[in-house]
Structures are given as structure tokens and as C-alpha cells.
Specification:
With about 375 residues, this protein is α/β, with parallel strands linked by helices. It is about 30% helix and about 20% strand. It has two domains: about 5-60 and about 325-385, Roll (Urease, subunit C, domain 1); about 65-285, Metal-dependent hydrolases (TIM Barrel, Alpha-Beta Barrel), CATH 3.20.20.140. Strand 8, helix 1 (about 80-90) and strand 9 (about 95-100) form a beta-alpha-beta unit.
Length: about 375
Amino acid sequence: MAKTVIKNIGTLISGDFSNPLLEGDTLVIENGRILQTGYWKDCQTEGAQKVIDAKGSTVAPGLIDSHVHPVFGDFTPRQRTVDFIDSELHGGVTTMISAGEVHLPGRPKDIVGVKALAIVAVRSFKNLRPSGVKVHAGAPILELGMVEEDFAEMAQAGVKLIGEIGLGSVKEGKDAAPMVRWAKKYGMTVTIHTGGPSIAGSNAINADTVMEASPHIVGHINGGHTSMLLKDIEKLVTQTDMALEIVHCGNIKAALHTLTTARETGNLHRIIIGNDAPSGTGVIPLGILRVLSFLSSFEEVAPEQIFAMATGNTARVHNLPVGFIKPGYEADLIIIDAPIGSAGKDALSALKAGDLPGISMVLIDGEIKVQKSRNTPPAARMAEVS
């Protein structure tokens, strides 16, 4: 059985918002899954084929980007999808979740085409893991005229997501609500666009529309790019139980207001973090790390809890076997530290200082996919295979 051990860990981030730090200096991986965490003397380290020395740096779950717009293959003028996925990997992202393949040139908007695109996208990325990254795609953009049988058909074909409601012809809560109920019936996770229109054909969506539609996820609650009114954000935080997605491409003031409101009302466990690329902001592979740094440095929330918003919180929403450092979970991990020259002495204090941590290693299913990120600043302590 394949076994890898990570030793000399300075800090273990769990990904669990309610218990964000773990005791121990050692992590054991067996057959691509986490077997054990704890102290070296207590762990089952014998027989390891590979030993990674973390050199006192931090080990955390791989980041989950809750909001991407991939296109299967590279057929889009907005970004080179496969290259972007590889660059996000170098920013610590090991799982990406589609909010709709909306930028496909000539994207079909008839119902047969909507279903066909979703099925092709989900199956394409099931067969292809660019650079090892787990891309959950196939998120149809809902159009008027869809009926329950359409959702049953897509679910039968493997579609598990519904892309941002509001990017197609379904724009009002009364039209979205029955479709959301059908999607939930067939086990799909539903996201709605919120805030001002982001692309031609999309619409401004406020809190009342979101509440009438009742999806699982308030997509980019801080706007993509234009935010809702702050009072609408407060309504969605305090009067719903939906996941609250903060994205890199959105409004910074609205992101902070969401975090503050959630903290004051005990709803931080509902916040998830996405990039939302490509967008008018651009294509920024380090978008998730940048949001982590921004929120950690400006708010009264511990950076290890902010970290959970980009890992375990999102994994729970989508029922994924990643995002936590916990026995039995897939061993998607990053080894990070304060960048050289930072005011922080380790990854967490660097985030609190507003810096991006340096990534020295990324593992997916226990296999090393990145050894020294080409995108982040160099880590003060670099993990090594010994």
C-alpha cells in the first residue's frame, strides 16, 4: 500500500471552522487518503515510501474555488482554461466548482442545448483532471420553459450543479423557485447570481429574488462586480440559511460587510470563497489566496477560520470528500509558510499581516503536483522530500 508521511509540521489547519487547528507535527497518507494526524511518536510512520519534511511550516487542506466558469478544452477567447486551472493549482487550489460554462462561444440557450452542454461538460472533466485538479463542471444556466423532466434527465446523466440563476432567461424568483425545487429533488446544488448584471443578458438580482428562489448558495454576495445594497446583504445573512459566497472579483466593501454581519450574528460557518473567473476583473489565479489574505487582515476573525471558508465550509455545501484534514478524506493538501521578508513568522500570521503565504508544495490524492509554486512569493521555509 502506498504510504506518504509529512513530518516536522509547525501548524496543522483542519479546514473545520468549529475546530480550525489540530494538535500534532505529523500527517500520514495511505492510498491517497489521510490515515492519521498527531505526533511523530504516536503515528504509523513505518513503511512509508515517501517522507516529506515540512521544516516547521504549515500544512492545510487544498483550497476549493467555489466559483469558476470553465470551458471544456480551451475553446474560449476569455481565458485559456487548462492553463488557468494549472495556475490556480500553483495558488493552492486543488478543487474547482463550476458556476456555469457561460463563456462558451455560441453557448446554446435552447433547452436541448442547455442540457447537452451540461452533460458534455460534466463528462469532459470527469475524464480530464488538468494538472490533477478536481474540476466539478456541468452547471447549466437555466432558461425559461424547462420542466421537471429536464432536471431528471440531467441528474440521470450525472449533472450535480445548477449554474448561476440570472445569467439566462430565468431572472425572477417566481420563475426560478419551481426549477430550484426540481433541482433539489434530484440532488443538484443550486447557485444564484446576486448584485448587478455582469455579462450581457444577465440581470440585477436583489435579496427578495434570492429568497423567493431559495437556492443553496448566494453566488458572489459581494457582487460580481456590482454589489447589492448592504441592507440586502444583511437580510440574506440574518434571514436565510443559504451559503454566502464571497468572491475575489466582487466589491471589497461588501465583502467586509458580509463578514462583519456574519460574525456578529454567528453565521461565519456559512461563508464560502470563490474566485469568479474569467470576469471583468480579469483572470487572477491567486484570487482565493488574495481573499484569504484580505479578510484575515481586515477583520476580527482568526485566519485559520478564514481558511475554513475556502476549504471545509465549501466541502460541506457540496458534500465533497475533500477540504478537511481528517482520517478518510482525500489527501489534497498544501504546505505553506510566511513569504521571505514578511512581518509574519508563519503562514497564519503572514495572512493576518496582509501577505500572501508562499506555497512550497501541493499534493492531490497524496501525490506531489507542485514543488515550489511558480506564482506565490517564495516561502521562508521550503518543504523537502527526504
